[in-house]
Amino acid sequence: MGSRKWAVEFTDNSSTPSTRDIPDPPGFTRVPHDQDDSTLSRQKKDAEANWKSQKAWEVAQAPFKNLMMMGFMMWMAGSTVHLFSIGITFSALWQPLSALQGVGKVFAPYKDSKVDLLAPKLLFIALNLGGMLLGVWKLNALGLLPTHASDWVSSLPPAREVEYSGGGIALH
Amino acid sequence: MAMAIKLSLILLLCLSSLLAPSFSLFEDQVGLMDWHQRYIGKVKHAVFHTQKAGRKRVLVSTEENVIASLDLRRGEIFWRHVLGPNDVVDKIDIALGKYVITLSSEGSILRAWNLPDGQMVWESFLSGSKYSKALLTVPSNLKVDLDSPIFVYSGGCLHAISSIDGEYLWKKDFAIESSVDVHQLILSGGSDVVHAVGVTDSSQFDTYEIDVKNGGLLKHTSASFPGGVYGEILPVSGDRFVVLDASRSVVLLITVNNGATHLQQTHVSDLIHGSSENTVILPSKLSGIFSLRTDSCIVFVKVTDEGKLNVMEKVDKTVVVSDALALSEGEQAFALVQQGDSKIELSVRLVHDMSSNHLKETVKMDHERGFVHKIFINNYVRTDRSHGFRALIVMEDHSLLLLQQGEIVWTRDDGLASVIDVTTSELPVEKIGVSVAKVEHSLFEWLKGHMLKLKGTLMLATPDEVAAIQQIRLQSSQKNKMTRDHNGFRKLLILLTRAGKLYALHTGNGRVVWSTLLQSLRTTSQQQCAGLKLRQWQVPHHHALDNNPSVLVVGRCGLSLTSPSALSIVDAYTGKELQNLGPAEHSTVQVITLPFRDSTEQQLHLLIDADKRAHLYPTTPEAASIFQRESENVYWYSVESEAGILRGYGVKKTHSSEYSFEARNLWSIVFPAESEKIIATVTRKPNEVVHTQAKVIADEDVMYKYISKNMVFVATVSPKASGPIGSATPDESVLVVYLIDTVTGRILHRMTHLGSQGPVHAVLSENWVVYHYFNLRAHRYEMSVIEIYDQSRAENKDVLKLIVGKHNLTTPVSSYSRPEVTTKSQSYFFTHSVKAISVSSTAKGITSKHLLIGTIGDQVLALDKRFVDPRRSLNPTQAEKEEGLLPLTDALPIIPQSYVTHAFKVEGLRGIETIPAKLESTSLVFAYGVDLFYTRIAPSKTYDSLTEDFNYALLLLTIVALVIAIFVTWVLSERKDLQDKWR
């Protein structure tokens, strides 16, 4: 050994840490090298899918927070009609509506053949509908929904009269 | 749609709750949209007060019971008092040179007013034993124990009253001894004797001489003539009198001489050769002369010292003669006015020298003023010591003019003090095309105006230029333009006056645009004509925009109900009489405007005559065919208040001629004569617009209004309680009110107010009626409201059915279907007594209503209809509060700021007319009486327009800033996008 000036080792020892006395850098975890390429990519994809579905669920649940927030704000706004309560109610109606319109767009980044987006989408839609219902409920609570007979007849003109009559005390 | 309305209503509520609920205006806003005009009415008598020092004035009493002091230089009113409608002014005079003495109420009230300021000094009530003529004599230089008595003959008694304090000095009752009717009181100058000249039983001529100190009878002479007398005895000189006999063909000259009375008869035919029908002695007092008027002429007859009658002159019968005016010792002058074509000739003559005119002037006169009715003259001394004359003349249209030196010094349109009826007309549409020359001219004017204004602000303008600036300001004022405006504030108010003259007033500043004396309504010697009604005849909308709108004037020639009627149609823009349909051969007791129009937009009218026949106007085949088609559904009713009967009529199928129709009696309601007497009837205004048939109440519930134009409100009282307040005890006075359908005669509602009585003033609008009466038990005036609701529609409450339109709410209704109705009512105390009640009216009927109450103080008070809502309760629920329902109070509040007349009084208030403007929030109000007042009101505030003090500059600035901000941010974002792309 002593006469050898240098040597090149071509074997890759990276997967066999035991043969090496140099420890791995901290935080570096050695991927077992014995798997082939396909398994590696599959694993990677799986992880991505996992992550995507996880994210999709997160996105799907996001309106819930909104819902709570809205509910709180509505409670704060009270049940009398003024600018603030009307603004909140309309935003409560508008937000879910715009969210529902862009439901495809929201879930587009998590689109994957392996990820089942139906369930999160349904949850998302359901939560948004819930938000909208909350808005409608608030609208009704404010008395702004035409649910009473009065809302439908209040602008009806008087019915035409068939007969016409005039007269009075004799003029003098 | 419903929601949008709801939302807008809610926003509106928010807005209105933010604004303070006051309807008052600031001091500097007075006159911006209102105007007030003061009048006095047709002058009956005038007394000049032209002393050398002080302001020259003329004191007048008028047929509207006004006494006024007018400035002789300009015709302005110094002061004015309007006596009540029952306090008719009989005589007016000046006492002691500082008091105006008026005798009124058939000689029972004598008042003295301070001449300079019109304050009342004293008032005396004179009691008499019987009705008689009222005479007033104010001796100019009679002193009795340091007092100057005034002699008044009224109620069969001669009263002497101190002119200083109005105290009774003595009273002489003639009625005790005989039933003499005193015609003249004469006080010969210097003596202490009053001569009372009268007639007993129209066959005995009596003269009494009465001591001015104590009222003792000094001498009584009498002479009888069996022929009887006609009219008044006229004094010719101190001891001579003339009177006509009952046949009006003989002039009696009466001479009283040393306790003996001589009668001398002269036939009128001897004085006037030719026809001498309807002879009267004119009441002008000229010494030694009297004037006789017959159908053909007027003659002046001189009574010579020997008692002979000499005809001095014969003039045309239209000549008007004034009283004699004493110039200097023994000299007297009087004035004659001769009517010419569009000019009048005024001549002044001296009594002792009738042969020549002392003064003769010709004055141009607008022929729309008609004939001269009265003339009063006054003299002044010119610098060359000769006499000049001024003449105050009263024209046929009740206007008052002062003539001096052949010119009209001033005129007053006092016919406007007696408005009978009011209607409105739209102004012409502004022409869009403008010629180049006009533009250039207006550009030049505009530049000039601005230069002037600039000068004015820099204080460089001369007084003339300042006046020019003011003129420009007034003229350029938008409100006075003669064209239609966007908001519908500019209109023509068309007024029919008692004189038969039609006036058109601009709503902007109340100026008279045109005036026409209607030929069909002119009173001639044969018949007395008067206007009755004014209706819109043609209102061009779509088809006939080229035509001018026109109005129909209905009058009557004669005094009885059966007198023939006079009709004329007048162009509303020019005042030209387009058509003179009268005198029609039928009479008119009712004018009914039918809701039908022909192809030229002429409104169909039915005129009902005294024989209950209906006459259709316009008399065109087209109108007849329209009426034939609709005649099944046309009804009318008559209220016979004396008989206590309401009758309903329909049109008979068989008609007498093409345009006149027989009536068939359909129903009648007979009120029991022993317990009920009709005192008031009110209907809805025919042109009232109602926005909706539903009334939304608390908790989103709906009530359906019973809205019918064929509803009449009738109030009756027990006959005992029909007199003034206090004439009946609470137990015997009962007020009953009815709501009656006038098609079927069905009584929709009847309500009894025990212990209440009239006068009743009421207003009926939409589905409610508000009426005002006196409660004898509470000793207070009350106002009650009745709201009437349609119960047959109440089931329409299913939302789904309403959404799909399965309801019967829009199907035409017939009175014969007898819908079930319910009513709600409530009563409140109200402090004021009331002269008239009206309600605001708007274009679409959306805006809430204000009641306009003409108070006894001649002001107009606006009262929110919410105060007279029968659903008010002591403790309204939260929902009811949100609805705007007020808690119930026992009395209606009178908020001083809600007087729409603010500081003005509409003296002698008779009516309040409301006219919708095009702007929904606004209603135009016109109140008339002796005065005229116009303003606009916005019962729910002007929610549909910006206020005048709105900051347009700020709004513009904000918009500009926003636009700039948008542009800047757009540029910035574009730049950022570009940078992002290059990265």
From TrEMBL, chain A:
UniProt membrane topology term: Multi-pass membrane protein
InterPro entries per UniProt? TMEM85/Emc4 (IPR009445)
List the GO terms this entry assigns under cellular component, sorted alphabetically.
EMC complex
Q: What is its main location?
A: endoplasmic reticulum
Q: Endoplasmic reticulum as a keyword?
A: yes
Q: Where in the cell is it found?
A: Endoplasmic reticulum membrane
Q: Where is this region: Disordered?
A: 1-41
Q: Which UniProt keywords apply?
A: Endoplasmic reticulum, Membrane, Transmembrane, Transmembrane helix
Q: Which family does it belong to?
A: Belongs to the EMC4 family.
This chain belongs to the protein called: ER membrane protein complex subunit 4
From TrEMBL, chain B:
So where does this one cross the membrane?
950-973
Using the record, list the residue span of the signal peptide; answer none if the entry has no such feature.
Answer: 1-24
**Per its UniProt record, what Pfam families does this chain match?**
Beta-prop_EMC1_N, EMC1_C
Q: Which UniProt keywords apply?
A: Endoplasmic reticulum, Glycoprotein, Membrane, Signal, Transmembrane, Transmembrane helix
Superkingdom per UniProt: Eukaryota
Any one annotated GO CC term? EMC complex
Does the record bear Membrane in its keywords? yes
Quote the protein name from its UniProt record: ER membrane protein complex subunit 1
